[in-house]
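Consider a protein example.
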Amino acid sequence: MKIGIQVYKPFLAENTAMTEQTPMVNVDILVIKDNKILLGLLTKKWSYEGKQVYGVPGRDIRFKERISETVERNIREEFGCNVTKYKIICVNSNYALDNHYIGIGIIAEIDGNPKVLIPEDWEKWEWFTKEEVPSNLFPATKNLVECYLNNKFIVSE
């Protein structure tokens, strides 16, 4: 009996998996300090359903980048602070703005005071108590906040 070996060729165009769209993976980071949640008011270019919304820092995970490195890089780039502690709390799907992201939800503690370092994305950073969290949240942020407040691992598939 002869056994054939099939070679997987992920980078060739004839591989149908590479010609279809695939989801991206990112981190969504909820910064917590003194029982308050840090949210950023996104600029109008990030409006969702015609409304300006609040969001959290977070971007794509780069190839071969560890989750810890992604969290540290994002906090530094978004508002110039260092991460002192972080924990993965959830995984959610996000389909906003005609995208598909698998978001790894993180809660983090930081040193320093957040500054607006990317003014094309953020207008301001604000601290909210759990009771004061605004309702106009970007969908990925809404999922993350809901997971944090309700101690759930997933709210959106």
In short: The chain has one domain: 21-150.
